[in-house]
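Page 47, continued from p. 46.
Same chain as before, 436 aa.
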Amino acid sequence: MPDLKAGFAQVDITPEEPIRMGGYGGRDEPSVGVLDPLMAKALAVEDAGGERGVIITTDVISFDLDFANVVLDDICKATGLERRQIIINSSHTHAGPIFGIRYQQCWELTPEQIEVIERYNKRVRQRMVEVVADALADMKPAELSWATGSTSFVMNRRKPTPTGVRNAPNPRGYVDRSVPVLRVTDPAGRLRGLLFGYACHNTTLGGANRMISANYAGFAYRYLERQHPGMQAMFLMGCGADANPYPRGTYDLCRQHGEALGAEVQRLLEEEGQEFQPVRGPLRIAFDHVDMPLEPQPTPEHLDAMRKQGQYYAKQADRIQAMIDSGKPWATHYRSPIAVWQFGEDLTLVRMSGEVVGDYIRLIERTIGPLNLWVAGYCADYFGYLPSARVHREGGYESHEFITGFGFLDVTVEDAVLSKVRTLAEKAGRPMPDTK
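Result:
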């Protein structure tokens, strides 16, 4: 008899009216239609001892911390779960709506546009509770296993130039092309669901697009669900903050990228000799927060330099100046949730917040070992980019983003994050590498 149970559910979270869209700063008009639906999906797991965990995947830009806290409170009150037992991951589609609380501060919105977003917030809150409750109600004996494939449409986007790093395709830059796949079957071997990931911005559609879409991630899971009617496929975003799809810009390329990703998952399922490794219990969850160090208060010279970089950075500089003028003490750290989920000795899932650059894949591998490891970014707290020390020193788009209401992450943030990951991995019981 399997020592794990699993349950699945999904709900539609497509906006029902025109809404301002997130992800590209140049769009200042609401959406004009829907290319394909946005979904929230849940996988609930329970081990033999009764420990439960729920992974929720969403076709949205990201959950800011204030809105995530509201949603998590709703879910916990309705289901009896604790926050440590819930992962909310966002696909980071740039063809979805602006929503949430803190995220609205990044845009100039009319009162009417804010009312639309608040209506959408209310609907998403309700649907998130529904999808978790339905997944828990669907719990049945299950066998879990995992494997890893690879696909190649991801491209590093930090291009070195004589004037610094700029946001452009960099064929020589590091990217994570792996496709981790968690397979869930019933005891008879029938496929019930798939959780799969990729570390690439969900940005095949560009800033000129004003149609709602789940982007390449949606094409990927729909491809798999067509191959296996009645099965639920879920996309878990990895550490793709400094990587874009390539080439990009059209809906047809969305289809190509998504179906290439889905086809690789399908190949793993079909290939003879491809061994999915068993994933067993117990499930041990180590949850905490990491205090990420911030740089000192910006100087007037720093703010003047920001204003010369363009309208986006000028607005950031104005918000920072308003914070300074308020007289509120400048923050020294930004506190963000982080967790490690350990399935027996078979699989370690590291749950990270923010837009995590690809360097953290290799850094975490060095810190806690590369075996049986899956790292997900874009979970719950969207505060902006999480740069590595290398990216911070090099500069460029992902290196130095203002965390609204707080400040800029310091170059030492890498050490703080890795130290916390190691502590949590040890607490969760991950077999650790010998560092002697």
